[in-house]
Amino acid sequence: MTLSNGRHYLAIPGPSVIPDPVLQAMHRPAPNIYTGELHDISDGLMVDLKRIAGTDGHLANYISNGHGLWEASLTNLLSRGDKVLACVTGSFGEGWADVAKKLGAQVDTLDFGKQGPVDPARLEEALRADTNHEIKAVMTVHVDTATSVRNDIPAMRKAIDAAGHPAVFAVDCIASLGCERFEMDNWGVDVMIAASQKGLMTPPGMGFVWFSQKAAKLGESADMRTPYWDWTDRANPEFLYHFYDGTPPTHHIYGLRKAVDMILEEGLENVWARHATLARAYWAALEHWGEEGAIALNIPERSNRSHAVSTVHIGGGDGERLRNWLTEHLGITLGISLGFGGSFGAGTGNDHFRIGHMGHFNAHMVLGICGAIESSLVALDIPHKSGGVTAASTFLAQLGADADVTPTGG
Predict the structure, then answer these.
(1) Helix axes 250-266, 37-53, angle to 10 degrees
(2) Domain C-terminal end among 198, 232, 264
(3) Who has the most CB within 10 Å: 24, 329, 349, 356?
């Protein structure tokens, strides 16, 4: 007998849980794409997406996933042979750098491993060494979805400024937008990318590139630019089709409009605080289980951990066993290991798993996942200290007893 019948819970770091109101907004006949409400909705979305990103700059949107956004951002900035500096903290930083190489850029890489953030001192040193200012862009990932490290973007900006370097600062926020505090203009970011399927709670298929006037100026002479990825008309549309370079992704637009409404109704500060608080509930359970076993969060320092995804080391190949048991018996899917000896669906690197806690989720969903994981640890005889669910619920109960307690920062 299986207990997995019913609504399956996809607790992976994207696509995230899609709220019922978003699904309902999408469940409608195809609209008129020439006149009518799609025009007004698209205009309003651009305003609100800039608000969520914390910018008054430009915004181009694409029918694309995150990998397409890597290409869109680079082709609008660079010419072949241009040099970029990639600050890597996991598989997704590596992926963006690899796209730059394939497009014809020269890529210098600062690799900071898989368990900690970018070191601003090393970044400053590398930029000071570039006395001719050949580096056109510094690239990094705010949250690397593979390792779950969260990079300190303001500290990186300070390092760039301290070096007196004119490079454009580009940040991948695909796993963090709508989950983690991010303030593009206040933090001095020139290019920012994000997609619809994580904190924005909409199915995969829409992506966004926000960019500053400095980035627009750098890109004026970019010879990598191609007609589809060109951000010029998308950021300054005269007609609806300019937003999307053709037929709009109609039902995604309706869904995203509802998702953005939900974010703004909750309030960005509240959204960030909810993610920070519920991430700590997961950490309380995981740290408790690990007191008598090999279970450990991949990022040792709490201040460096993402509030949107947790990568967990479990050892002995038990990551795959645990994920399979949860799917088969309890109807829950956790994220696979990425960058720890395995790749997408590769069946290796099975000492890790990932928990997505982004977008549409709340306390009882967290406690449900914690309970399911503890059941699997018992069923599979994986060493752990019992009581992780109690640790998570106690943490939440203590917060509930003092309504003024709201975790901030790390």
Answers:
(1) 40
(2) 264
(3) 356
Same domain, 255 and 319: no
Length of the chain: 410
Of 119, 126, 157, 127, residue with least CA distance to 304: 119
Q: Are residues 235 and 337 in the same domain?
A: no
Instruction: For residue 408, tell me if it sits in a domain.
Output: no
What's the rounded mean pLDDT across residues 97-107?
Answer: 98
| 239-271 tens-digit pLDDT | 888 999 999 999 999 999 999 999 999 999 999
Question: Token pair 């014809």 is at which residue?
Answer: 104
Please check whether residue 44 lies inside any domain of the structure: yes
344-to-204, 226, 291, 350, 383 alpha-carbon distances in Å: 17, 29, 30, 12, 27
3 state SS of 214: helix
> Looking at the DSSP assignment, which residues form a beta bridge with residue 333?
10
The parent domain of residue 189 ranges over: 20-264
| pLDDT per position as a tens digit, 22-48 | 999 999 999 999 888 999 999 999 999
* Judgement on whether residues 171 and 33 belong to the same structural domain of the protein: yes
242 Cβ contact partners less than 8 Å away, ≥ 6 residues apart: 233, 234, 236
- Mean pLDDT value across the chain: 94
Residues 136, 257: Cα–Cα separation, whole Å:
35
- For 231-263, b/e burial (b = at least 16 CB within 10 A) is beebbebeebebbbbeebbbbbbbbbbbbbebb
Distance of CA 181 to the CA centre of its chain: 12
Cα–Cα nearest to 99, from 77, 132, 129: 77
H helix or E strand, kind and range, residue 279:
helix 268-289
The answer to whether residues 257 and 147 belong to one domain is: yes
Does some domain include residue 409? no
The CATH number linked to 198 is 3.40.640.10
